[in-house]
Design goal:
238 residues, alpha/beta, 2 domains, 6-stranded antiparallel beta sheet, globular
């Protein structure tokens, strides 16, 4: 396993609780839209066994041509050891990246694409939207729906409706409005639905979509192949 050590080159305060850590691109490090990586802090591999408390599975919120690896995360006042350590890092500090992979690249199948996310889940979807803006081939249109109860919505410069690009973006701050809108979107029985958020959020969205007749193969999750069946084989008869 190759570990890429790199440095923080910029820290962006997206909202009072959300920061993006921009990292230098190490030589040989590659990724595509929808990618996630293992993001580790210094000292994680100092002992005989890796310190898992200093490692997190994070989405990359940028594309390679932006020339920085973006890691966007929410850090609340009460947080884990990992987040507390991360909050104190500064430009120039070293971090490590390894096991990078994309489960949710943008599918180009001449269909409508729906991006369903919760809070900072938008970080996973930002590269898909930028990729679509730069090359809309074989994608009919994209609609993004994000729920964030903090009302501090992320990436509003990217997630802004652009009718000329066949892109619409919607932010809501409560579950009732959110799931009502998911049902409306599921009226498109041929669409592709990407869901990004907590496991509980994934399960709730899958249940709503499946009840509306959306098939498992139309639902994209940021999960390994072996985990997908656990989520997509939900028994709706219960």
């Amino acid at each position: 396993m190759q570990i890429y050590w790199t440095k923080i080159n910029k820290i962006i305060e997206e909202t009072p609780e959300v920061k993006t850590y921009m990292l230098d691109c190490p030589e040989g490090f590659t990724w595509e839209e929808g990618a996630h990586t293992h993001f580790a802090l210094e000292g994680f591999n100092a002992g005989e066994k890796p310190n898992r408390g200093l490692i997190r599975h994070m989405s990359i919120s940028t594309l390679p041509h932006e020339n920085s690896i973006g890691i966007t995360t929410r850090i609340r006042e009460q947080c884990s050891e990992f987040k507390a350590t991360l909050r104190n890092l500064e430009v120039g500090n070293k971090v490590a990246l390894f096991k990078t992979h994309s489960n949710v690249p943008l599918k180009r199948e001449n269909k409508n694409v729906y991006l369903l996310s919760s809070g900072v889940g938008l970080a996973t979807l930002r590269p898909l939207v930028i990729d679509y803006f730069e090359r809309a081939d074989n994608v009919n249109q994209i609609h993004s729906l994000n729920i964030d109860s903090s009302k501090d919505f992320l990436f509003t410069n990217i997630f802004e409706s652009a009718p000329d690009k066949k892109f619409t973006s919607q932010f809501v701050d409560n579950r009732s409005d959110y799931y009502e809108e998911v049902k409306n979107l599921a009226a498109d029985k041929d669409g592709l639905f990407y869901i990004v958020g907590s496991d509980e959020f994934l399960v709730q969205n899958i249940e709503v979509l499946r009840e509306q007749g959306i098939q498992p193969e139309q639902i994209m999750l940021d999960k390994h192949e072996r985990q997908l069946s656990d989520f997509l084989s939900l028994d709706l008869s219960v």
